[in-house]
Structures are given as structure tokens and as C-alpha cells.
Give the backbone structure.
Amino acid sequence: MTRLGVCYYPEHWDRSVWRDDAKRMADLGLSLVRLGEFAWSLIEPGPGQMAWDWLDESIGILADENLEIMLGTPTATPPKWLIDKHDDILAWDRDGRVRGFGSRRHYCFSSETYQSHSQRITDAMANRYGAHPAVTMWQTDNEFGCHDTVRSYSPMAAKAFRAWLETKYTDVHALNIAWGNIFWSQTYQAFDQIELPNLTTTEANPTHWLDFYRFSSDQVVRFHRQQADIIRQHAPLSKITHNAMGHFFDFDHFEFGRHVDVLTWDSYPLGFLSQSRSSDAHKHAYLRQGDPDFAGFHHDLYRSCAPAFAVIEQQPGPVNWAPDNPAPLPGMVGTWLMETLAHGGEFASVFRWRQAPFAQEQNHAGMLRPDDQPAAAFCEVAELKSILPQLTDAKAPASVALLFDYESLWMSEIQPQGTGWNYQDIAESWYRAVRRLGLDIDIVAPGAPLTDYQLVLVPSLFHVSDEASAAFEATDAQLLFGPRSGSKDVNGNIPPDLGPDKLRPLIPLTVARSESVPAFETPKVTGPTGTGAWHAWRDDVVTELAPILSDEHGRAVLFHHERTQMFAALPDDNLINSVVETLAEKLSLKSGSLPDGLRLRRGCGHRFAFNYSTKEQTIPTGLAPADGLYKAGNATLAPGSFAMWVDQ
Amino acid sequence: MTRLGVCYYPEHWDRSVWRDDAKRMADLGLSLVRLGEFAWSLIEPGPGQMAWDWLDESIGILADENLEIMLGTPTATPPKWLIDKHDDILAWDRDGRVRGFGSRRHYCFSSETYQSHSQRITDAMANRYGAHPAVTMWQTDNEFGCHDTVRSYSPMAAKAFRAWLETKYTDVHALNIAWGNIFWSQTYQAFDQIELPNLTTTEANPTHWLDFYRFSSDQVVRFHRQQADIIRQHAPLSKITHNAMGHFFDFDHFEFGRHVDVLTWDSYPLGFLSQSRSSDAHKHAYLRQGDPDFAGFHHDLYRSCAPAFAVIEQQPGPVNWAPDNPAPLPGMVGTWLMETLAHGGEFASVFRWRQAPFAQEQNHAGMLRPDDQPAAAFCEVAELKSILPQLTDAKAPASVALLFDYESLWMSEIQPQGTGWNYQDIAESWYRAVRRLGLDIDIVAPGAPLTDYQLVLVPSLFHVSDEASAAFEATDAQLLFGPRSGSKDVNGNIPPDLGPDKLRPLIPLTVARSESVPAFETPKVTGPTGTGAWHAWRDDVVTELAPILSDEHGRAVLFHHERTQMFAALPDDNLINSVVETLAEKLSLKSGSLPDGLRLRRGCGHRFAFNYSTKEQTIPTGLAPADGLYKAGNATLAPGSFAMWVDQ
Amino acid sequence: MTRLGVCYYPEHWDRSVWRDDAKRMADLGLSLVRLGEFAWSLIEPGPGQMAWDWLDESIGILADENLEIMLGTPTATPPKWLIDKHDDILAWDRDGRVRGFGSRRHYCFSSETYQSHSQRITDAMANRYGAHPAVTMWQTDNEFGCHDTVRSYSPMAAKAFRAWLETKYTDVHALNIAWGNIFWSQTYQAFDQIELPNLTTTEANPTHWLDFYRFSSDQVVRFHRQQADIIRQHAPLSKITHNAMGHFFDFDHFEFGRHVDVLTWDSYPLGFLSQSRSSDAHKHAYLRQGDPDFAGFHHDLYRSCAPAFAVIEQQPGPVNWAPDNPAPLPGMVGTWLMETLAHGGEFASVFRWRQAPFAQEQNHAGMLRPDDQPAAAFCEVAELKSILPQLTDAKAPASVALLFDYESLWMSEIQPQGTGWNYQDIAESWYRAVRRLGLDIDIVAPGAPLTDYQLVLVPSLFHVSDEASAAFEATDAQLLFGPRSGSKDVNGNIPPDLGPDKLRPLIPLTVARSESVPAFETPKVTGPTGTGAWHAWRDDVVTELAPILSDEHGRAVLFHHERTQMFAALPDDNLINSVVETLAEKLSLKSGSLPDGLRLRRGCGHRFAFNYSTKEQTIPTGLAPADGLYKAGNATLAPGSFAMWVDQ
């Protein structure tokens, strides 16, 4: 059953208001409350001095109102007394500076000292509350990697990295081969000669970086698992989660997701639009609504990482941390919450209950104002109270899949080879090309089964593993590959027979060489399959196939063979939109493209429409139900609103 | 009596030219000569080896020509031998690097070692020259804070900061409350746990920063006072000054000004325009004249900081330190000097006598070229010789005040919450709105008496102290407040009953929440009170008042209650111009708006017009006197020129 | 005899392919092979463990095919074991951080430890191969200064700098005078007080910087000479070279060139265009061809630095290190190679034989693809095989010289005094003004004899030495000087009688002061001698001469006296083009200006045309020969192609 929740920091308020807070939450229809993360200095004010009373009381009060507790381990904020005792807890930045106390996330994942204290405090909390019937979910730490903290350049990280490399390669000669260390006399005689790849005179070896990225991702998983293992011992019936973030790819969430029950995430559509690389026109159009595909992309990505997903922090109003922090359109918070549920989320929880008047986040809105009056989000949540019970657990299968690959992103970050290549932007552009047709989509990992789909989009898959290759061959779906697919081996090097490497059985061609071009070079592409331009990247392809799309200068842009399409150049938004639309029509998947800012989604036994536009938008005929069938809204949606009808 | 002066570095030139220099200064009508700052290595070539002869001689020669001496302590440039003996003199930058010897201002205000040497050299100089009849003014150090030196991140600064905090809070628990350290487990158990707010993993606590800004400002005042106290002992009849800068707000000049007799400043209109955030169009229009309100703003600000103000360094030609360094229009140097006097300056002094052909400032013009020939500034000063004696000491009271607040600037720098909010730009925009009407204006500190004004502008006052509140209530003036006024308590936190806090007795409203928006969001505003747009910032206001101005989407922009006006959004230049013009008309303060680049000012028993335009400009009818009354210029001013007539 | 070559890394490939590689090189018509640089870890896998067998074999195989070897010392890449033994080898960056192992060029030129190891490995290699008949040339190290490595801020550099200063000045008082240390109390009592000029509080003394630049340049020359002296002992009949770079001016190549037999350089026209400050329009027009004057400028510069010049690394396709890396137009690689020979290059050699599939440069094209198939460069070299034997050693004298001065570049980098002044851009702009007229040009050092030229361009010569002055007076050529010429003395200070100092005998004027202006200030200039605008820089000149060009506001722009022309403002491209064209017409040097992207050059007994345009271009009538005379191409050149005909 889908539910709503809220993040709550009782330690920020006088105990006299706790009971009233709990009652108001329950009255509002909330059923989940997250608390505890960041509270280490209150739980353990000095070494070994545990102070549980406040937390006992707070949990008790919430439980009295039948609210379920999502309890966080407080390891994102070790207290000052612990840092002062152990300076080997702190991470180092890429410039070699210690990242000090004074905010949060001030620790290095590779600090053995900190790992032991992380386990100690987790054990103490899980021991005390693991059997509490109201504590039904545990969150480890908070936002692993926020503030660029996945990768630490400390001596502890260097030591752990060497051990990781020795485990992976056993023999340093194997590492020398994998990295190509014969180049520039980089050959190592022993693992303990290897340093971290920062502060080199010019760029370090790309496989050195790639292994460091992988190691750093593994350290996050390992740190989480140390806590999760302890929690499972004390609370075998509770679910375990961690809150992931938006536009954040520094660790592999597919791998991480194997170690949680629910992968939750923190959805801040306005903050992320402000931070993004989008054009000013796009930012202006969606200033107070967010990019219409921001939340959906992450819902669909995180849904496939773990058994379940949810939003644990939903933006409730203006935030404090983006370059600019506008207020959401009226209704927008409710629409975001409903969209989470429509995409299959287990629950949607607002951050936070009451706006704090002090410290770093004092300008971050809550459901209540600092003076305890209801803020916009409070009212919008109240309006959902009658709608929630109508939702079911029904899932609607998607016919389209988009393959997303963390390692391709890492490889292109390490060796971009061109200013216009951004893996995240490309993946989101291809995702949008599907969503603007009103289609649901699954985002899947390389190697995931593809047999249930009719159309599989692969924006770019640098290294094609045997598992990924087998999945492509096993499906009957139409396959659409972007450039650079199959361009690298497992070490990020060029495969012996060049790209597209293991994709060649699908389409007989070879990428002889590639070029990258600046933003002003956008050759036009026009053809029966698509119209637009290519930009940023182009492959010179050797093949007997005739291209099905070429640019204005006659350079090949798209090849087709059997059920495989492969780009020889990076399509711009117009070109990917029209190529995907052509494929969707060919597969009879679509019935019309949507007006600006409108998105559709099936889920919870219903169909939903969400209007991200600042204008009224009408669901196209053929996609909308008859007038009387709406459970919420209707065919013409006000700005920021949603509509809902039974999926028949 | 108003006077002109010059900055002089006899140590840069052979003694053979000193006497001729002094004669030429006197012949030119100069009466003040500044010297001595930067000369430590010549005064004390080695530890304790005092070498006074050159300075004795130089002062004697100048005194022989009846020139008065403004003598500077040389503490902005401690010599290398002193640094080599004491490495705890040097400041550290925000990145944790020592800021080394090799230029100037290479010391940390919190270095106890340096404080003692600063007092030692000051005592030696004041002892020698304190009773000299020609030495009538003492300047401490030079440009405190230049090159970002107010805030040092050294261990000495950390130690002094902890002591400052302990003095302020006594109990660390009080500090924890004030800073909101319950947030993110930042609670301290003891003052000696507290570090400086730099090099934290993400942003440090804003009150931590605010107290560090206050501490750093206090350290500047303290360092100055250590010297001033010594000087007063030896030279009880001399005036004490220090040279402030333009666009520089890192210490509180209202507080600092209490410890000088004259607050002088260094006016470089072209250098500061080149450095500024102004549009290219504005920079182009005023390329060789400077922003028409740059000098005036600082004259009016510094006039209210201390018993008197003056310009001690006037740009004489191209300088060396701005991105681009154009030459002033012919006549412009004379116009700048006269404007200083018109705004009530005690004197105006040119930097420097003769351009040095060597070292960092070799491309900085002087009154003489390096080959000893007169440069433009020399000739323009000569032309003022006959005008100066006509000026009187008469002051003309202003009817408009603008409230400027260093702490509001600091708070918005620490937590800008939006890209478009810049306190300095806002204050200057509001200042310009008054000056373009031909009105004189006083810039005043929060809490200053406001009873003598008819119109008081408060661009933004984050924290409203009891004193400021009382001053608002005591005046009958019309009050115009910008957004964010009353948005913070004394710790920079949100007040319990939200904004506008202590301004609520003036106007009954509450700011429920605020939003910041990017530069492309500029909703239009049209109404009887004003026309333009809002930008960057908007408050959602809860009130029973009806707005007197709203934007094109119906959002409230300006409220009015009794004699108080308050913006709910940040006005752009057009909107603040028209709202101020409407208020001025209502108060019968103005008779017409001025053509581009023209500025008026009453002072010294006269009225003045200054033409900052590259075109001829004519004083509007009604503001100009009859033709025969001009003492200088006339109703139509050539580019860069001034006009003057008796104020009747 | 002109020849072609290739850079080859046998250590990257299995020995089984070495013999086939050699045969294919010989078959292709190559005669030179460069190898060995970067191979230290293979030559000496551990301390003193020499492993020559692979290199013996590789050289033997190449010699068997009559290929001549250019052998590189491997000192650009000291192995990890050596770094681990001696941490005083590594350089420090300007921010005070050690520049670590992990890429290349990880050493400080001032490390005495490294100097001794550099000499040790050079001696070992020269001892083994110095007498080998196939080894006809030795390259020291690789790309001195690449990755900003000329200037190191290490303690070893500080020590060596102090010794260099003591040698130069003997007495620290002389240094104090030369630097103007009386300014800001910077006076030193002893050389050991002097630190490096980085990490000062604000900008360090400019002569301090200038001497540090000169010292750093000298350290490069010294490091090279240490190796060259050893090589000459063992290989007295071999030539010595080093590979310089494009757009790289951190050491003085005129001085350096005195210590090589051939100054080779590495020509990457597309990579450098991508990195450049050119407009997007210019970058777009020449995206896949390179700037039409990039290679020519460096050919002409390096030709005058040493007895001979050559290109040792020619870009063969897309590279990996520029922001964007497009593929050259078909034919472009062949055109670049021929242009090198036309400009008098001894040989032209392609980097590299086969693209490496691993490590930092895996995306850098070669003549062969990683899968051993021919890439574009292979085919284009093959097409030159029949053309090369027709070329002779004949040289064609140029009638125009452009004076280039490393110290002027350094002085303007240290004290730019304006955003629009870039010495390199100015020099290239003036070079282009000549080349677009179809004229050949020599680039010469200050003081070089000028008697053989009819026109001498001096874009800017800050300090005019006695030698330079004598050369100007000794020639009958027309002289054209840019602004700031003669503006500095040998210490970078202002000369006693101001600019143009020692040029005043050529043209009687004095620069009273100078102004710099931003990019939006571009006053128009129209006159019989030239049309365009000035930008960035203008001098106020005192003279009895009437200007021959003035701007729209009447400010003087160009003066003329006898055979000397001198600008009082920096001409934009249009103005310098038209002024040079007027002078060329006056001297009857030119017969027409060339269409976009077309360049001409005489050399090797022939005349050549090169088409850098993306369009067909036709050689103007009067410059082209009769149709039947072409040895390659014809009067209308395809994009990227060249034409060649006998010079009669």
C-alpha cells in the first residue's frame, strides 16, 4: 500500500511540542516518520556516554500515534570529540587538503578507525531499537557521496586502494598489462609503489583512474554493508534503505542496490534544475516546476536497482542550497508526491516537518514554517489524503527499456575526448525522447534481461560485457545504440578489433576512428527515419551497410541491420526524438506526442497525467479517458496539477 | 578650509631633487604631503638599527615650504629580516597556505608577535616626530584589508578567535544555542574545540562564519587602536587617520571610524569601474570618467563614519592594477578633486607626486611623469588654485538618508540564497535613484538618528536592532524598506515570528517564505507608484494590507502603511528609480531628473555640477542659476568638467 | 635532401611485429625513425639493472631496412623506483604542491639529484649506441616545458635561483637597485633572503618575476647541455636535436637553439586551434585544417633558432589532448608534411606509427590503426613518395622579416597592464598580414642582421638592446614598430627618458603615458595608409611629427619618419593588414592578396600553394604559373590540398 511520510528532527525542538507534532502528522494522513540521522552528538555527547532518553521518548510518542519509524544511523555527522581523538577519520580532497570538521560527511570511507566507530554506534542503536515494533525501517548514514565525498585522497585511501588492487590483480605484472603501464615508463614493480591518481604532473593513466573510481564505489558499498549486517542481526524483520540522490553517479547504484530492501532517494526538482547544465530557456520554462523528466528518470532508474524504491526526501518549497531557490508552483508538491507513487514508489516522504530557523539549512522550507504555521506543502499533502486509499499495488509493465551504465559514465568522465560528450545528458535526452511520446519506460543495467521489451535504447555502452551481449542477443526487441558503444574493453582500453567489439554480431561494421567537435559544429541530418542534427561526436565507420541517415555533407549518421540500429554520430534532441518516434510508430507503441511539460504514467491500478507546464495543457484525444472517469483532475490540467483515472 | 595634498615617496628619489619637489608642490598650491608608509626597511634596515636621517631631512625640507606632513606608520610592509625571524607574522589564506613575503600586507592581524613589532615601530616614529610642528596628521598602516587580508586562517587567528568567542559567549552552551549547533551534530563541549570555518567538507555553519567575520573586523579595529593609542600619547594635537578603500566592506567602517579623527579613503574611479560587475554598456559609457556615483557613494558613506572625511589618494591618470587601465578624460582629475570637496571632504590628495619607473606600480601615473615632466594631473591641479580660496566651510544638510549596514552585507555574503542578490549593488542602485534626481544624501548607520530627514531609504537591513527600530519610530520621514529587512535575528537566524520582525510595528505584515530567481526571470511591474520589474528576490507576504504595486502575474511587490513603504520583491533599477521619484515628488524634494552622467551637490557655500558624461550636458532649467552667477563653468558642461556657483 | 620519418614505440608491441613494421616503413618511403624517449623503465627496470637487448634488437631491425634512427634520451619519464629513492626529483607547482609521479615530466630542472641521474642514463645510452652507424640523430628528453614544467617552485629551484642571482648581480645592493626594492620595503640584505615569487600576498615585484623567468629558461638550456655534452663525446658525428612545441614560449628558443644542430618541433594544427583563443567563427572555418598560419609561423620561427629545423611529430589524425579533437580533412596530413618541407624543414616525421590501444594517448591517431590497418595518414604519406625526389635543397630568401622577442612576451605576461594585450596573438596577427599577401617571411631574434630585408615588422620590442638598436640602424629596410616598443629597460623598468628609448634616433617622439582599454572600445581608423580600428592599447605621444593615421576622435595612431613607422595604438587585424599591404605595395613586394585559407611558399627549388580552406580556392592570376607547369595539383586547389611547381 502506498504511503506518505515526513522527515523529522525532534532534537531541534523543545520536547513540549513533540506530542502535538505527532498528532498533527497522524491527522494529516502521514504514516511514516524518518528520524535520527545527524543526531550522533546527542546520542553520544562524549566518548561512550550514551544518552537514549530523548530518542526513546521521541520514538514512543510517534509510536503512540501509530506512526512507523524509519531510523537513521548518525554516521554522516561524527561529533567533534571523536574527530579530535582520531585525525585519521577525515577525508582528503583531490588537492591534498584535509576536509575538516564543521559541516557534515567529514569522514573517509577508507578510514579503518571510522569504520570501527561506524559499526560501534550502529550496533548500539540497532541493539536498542532493533526489536522496537514501530521501527520498521533503517536508513544507513545519509546521502553517501554528497559534497563529492565518494573519492577521498587520504593516506588511508591509498593504503586501501593498494590492497584492493592486489586483490583484483594478484600480480603487479597483470596490473601493468591492464593499465598499459609500458606507456611513459609507468611500470610498477610492486603494489606498494602505486599512489592515488591525483596531483600528477599531467593526466594520470585512465585505467588507474577507472580502478580508483571502482575502488571508491566499492568502499561505499562496503561501508554500507558493515552497518547493514549489524542491523539485520538486531532487526531481522526491518527493511534497510539508504537515501540516494539526483544526478549523482559516483558509485554504482545497481551494485549498491543489491544490499538494501528499498532504495530511497531525495528528490529536489527545482534545486537540481537550477544547478543543471540546461539552457536558460529550459530553466525559465520550468523554473518553479522542475524538469518534467528529472524525477521520472530517477524513479525509473532506482526502481530497477533494488527490490523497491521510494522518495524519502521530497522538496517541500524553496530550498537553500541551489544557486537560485524559487518557490514551487501551487500544487506542485502534491504532483511530485503522486508522480513518485505512479512510478511505483513504495512511499513518498517530505523533507522536512518544520523549517529550522538556524544553521546551514535555515532557508530550506518545511511542511510547517519556523513559526509553526502550515506552509504550502502541508496543505498540498492534506489534499492527497482522500486520494491515497484508492491506489492499488498493481504494476504496469513497460514496453521500452533504456540501458544505463555507470562505468560508461565514469570512462567518459575520465577520458571525455570532447567537450560536448556528457553521458548523463545523453541518457536523459534519450529518456525524454520516449517520455514525450507518453510511454512508460524501465531503466535497466547492462546484462539485465531484455526479453520483455519491444524497444531497447542504449545511449552508449562503452564496454560490452559478455552478459550484456547475451542479453542483446536474447531479445527480439528493436535495439538502438548510440555512438561509442563497444568502444572499450573491460579496462577502458580499445578492443583488439576496435568498436563496436561484441556488438558486431548484431550489426556488421567497424569504427575506424572517431572525432569530437565543438558546439558550433552541428551538421544537419534529414531523412525518412529522422530529422535534426548531429553534434559533439562522430565515428568513421567501415562497413558494407548503407547508412539509413546521413548528414548534409554525406557523412553516415545511422546504420540499420536486422533489429539493430546504431548511430555513427551523436544525435541532438531533435534527431533522437524523431528517430525514437519513428521506431515507436513502427512498433505501434505510441498514439501521439504530448504537449510541452505533460507526462503520462500507469501505476497503482491507475493512469496519471502530470502537468509540468506553466500553462494549462490538455491530454491528447486517444490518450485521455471519457470525462466522467477521472478520480482526480480532468483532461485539461491546470499548471502544476495532476489527473488520475482508472487503468482499464 | 578645504585643501589639496599629494602622496610623496622621497625614498624613491635621489636627495638632490627633494628640495625642488617641495618647492614645486608649494607653488602648485598644495598644502599637505603624505609620506612614510611602506618605508620600514629604510627606517630600520636591520633589527633595532634605526636610520632617521633621511626622514628627518625630508620632513625638514617639506616643512621649510610650509607643507604639512601626514606621516604614515610603515606596518603594511614589514621588512624581510623581521619575517625571517618570526614566521608567525604571516597570514594564511582560506586554502590553508601561508601568504608569503614579496609584496605587501604580509601579516596576520592576530599575530601577537606582529602586534608587538607594530607597536614598537609606531612608538619609535611617534616618539621622534610626534612633537614636530609640521606633522599634523598620522596615518596608521595602509589600506587595512587590501588584497583580502582582513580574514586570516592562521593558527594565531584560530587562537584569537577562540578567545574572542569565549569573551562573547562565556559559556560554550550559549554559543551552541546561538549557532544552532544541534544541527548536523556540531555541538561543542569546549571553546578550544572550535576551528576556523574554512576547509570544511561542505559549507560551515553561517553563524560560525558571521562571528568569524565580526571577529576579523574587530581585529582590524584593535590593531589600529594599538597604534592610535601610542600616537595620541606622543602627538596629542595631531589628527589620526587611516585610508579606507572603495567597494570594500570586510570590516565595519562605522565602528572603525570611531577611532580616527578623519576617515580618509583612496578614490580610483576608473580602476574600480574596470573591476566592477557593471554591464559592458555602462563600463563603455563611463570608461574614462568612472561611474558617476562611485566617488559620491563613498564620500557620503565615510563622511558619516567619523568626525571628518577626505580623499587621501586620488587617481591621477591610468593606474596599474585594474584589468584595463584607461586614461581619464581631460579635466576629470580636477573634477574628481572638486567633487570630494563638494561632498564635504576636509581635503583631497593625489596619489602620487611622481610616477615610479620601477616595481609593481611602475605603470601607475603620478602628477609628474617618471622623467619629471608634468603629467595631466599636475596641470589640472594647477587650474584649481584660484578656485579653492572661494570655498567656505559651510555644510548643507541633506533631506534624504540611505541606511547602509555592514552586517547585512556579511550575512548575505555568507548565505546569499540566490545569485542575483548583491548587497553592495542594491545599495548603490538605491543611492543612484536619489542622486539622479539632483538630491544630496547622507549614508547612515543602523541606529543613527533619522529625525532630520524627510525620506529614509533602507535597501535592506537583515537584523533590526532595538536602536535601529527606535530610530525608525522616532522620525517623521517617509521610510522605504527593501526585501529581507528584518529577516534575521542578531545571530543571523530567522526571528521567532519571522520577518520583518521588529519592523512589524511600522507595517503589519509577515514574510511567510521567500524565493530567489535567476537573471532571466524579471516579471514586469506597472502602477501609479512605479514602473519597472522585480528581479532576484521575492517574498510571499501574509497581510491584510493591499499591495500598492503588483507584478504582471498579480504577485505583490510593494506595500504601504502610514509612513512606511516596504518592497516584497527586489526592484530593478527602473522600478527603484520611479518609486523613489514618486516619493520625492510627494515630499516636494525634487525639481527634475538629471541628464545622463550629470550630478549636483551642495557644499562649501556653493552648488556644484559634475559632468561624468562623454557628451556636453546642460543643467536642467530650475536647477541652474542665472548665467552670470557661475564661479566656474556654466550651465552647459563639457565632458569631464564641473561648474560651481554660490549657494543662495 | 628532404625526407620523411615516423615516431615509433617498439616497446608497446610484441617483438613478432617489429620486422614487419620496419619493412612497411621502408616500403612507404620513410627514411627516419624516432624511438627511445619514454623507455627508461624498460632500459633500466631497477637501479643499475640495464636491459639493452630489446633496444639492440629494435635498432638492428630498423637498420636492416636502411632506416636511420633518431634516438631519444628517456629523461622525460624517470621510473617509479627512482622517484621513490629521491623525493627531491619532483617539481613543485606555483601553489606549493609537489607534482607527483603518474604521468610524465615529473622532475624539477633544478634538482641536482635528477641532473646527475639524467647524465648517468644519457651516458649509458650514448656509450652503447653513440657509434652505431644507423643512429644519426639524438633527441634530448622530450618537449621541455610541456605541462607547464619550465618553472618549478621547489626548494631546489629556490636554492638554484639564489645562486643564479648571485652570479648575475654579485652584490645584493645591485639587485635591490635593478628590482626597485626600495618600493614596499622589499630591500634584501643577502641573497639567501630571496624566495621564489609565488605565494606572495599580492603580486610580487615584476623584475623578481622576470629574473625568475630568465633563470628558469636558463635551467632548461643547462639541463639540455648536460646531456648534449655527453652525447657529443660518444657520438661526435651525430646530430643533436630536441623537440620544441607550438605556442610555447616559456624558455628562450633563440638561446636554446644555439645548442642543437636541428631544432625540431611537434606540429598539431587541429589540437592547437581547439586550444586557442581564436573566435568561434575562425575555429569553425578551420576546424579540420588548422589555422593556416599556425604551422608556418613556427616553421619560420624555429628555422632561425638553429642551423636547421624540422617537424619531428606531425599530427596524423584526431589527437586526444585538445578540448575537441576533430579528424583532419582528407589530404590535410600530406599538405602539412609538404608545407614543412616548403618552409625549409630538413625532414617531416609523423607521430606515431601505430595508435596505442591503452593509456593516456589511446585516442591519439597513428599512421596505423590499433588493429594494424592503415589509417588516413598512412595513405597520404604514400602519395608523397613520388613527389619527394623532385625536391632540391635550394633556399629562397625572404624579403620580409618579423622580429620576435621572448623577453617582450615574458614582460607582458608579468605585467599585462590590460586584458587585450597578448604578445603571441599580436605577433601572429602581424605574421598573418604578410602571409595573406603571398609573401615569404623570416622570423628573427632581436639583434639579428636585417640588411637583407626590404621590410621589417616589429610587433613589439619592450626592451631595445644595443645590438637590436644597431641592427635597426644598419638596415635600409622599411621598419614598422608596434606600441610598447622601447617601453622598458633591461630590467623591465621604465627607461629614464621614457619610450621609445633607443628607438628615438629612428623616430623623434616620446610616449608620455599609455592607456589600456577593454574589448568593447575599438575606435575606428581611416586613412590613406590603412583602415580598421585600434584596440586594447594606446600611447599618448609627444612629438613634432604629424600622425599619418588618426582615429575617429582625432587621436594619433601611426607616425612616420624617414624609413620608420611606429604605431601609437595597437592595430586590429584589419588595420595591420592594410598598413602592411600599403607598405608592401610601396616596396613593390606583392602582386595580390590571397583568397581565404590559401598560402604560398617558395622552397626546395619549387613554389607551393596550400589550401587551408574548406572550399576550392584558385591561385590569383599573376601568382600562378602556366597550366602545364604543375608538378602536383593545379591552379584550383581542392580543400586541404597543395599544388607545386618549379620556381623559375
The radius of gyration of chain A is 25 Å. Residues 12 and 612 of chain A are 34 Å apart (CA to CA). Chain A has four domains: 3-77+124-148+218-390, 156-208, 400-586, 601-646.
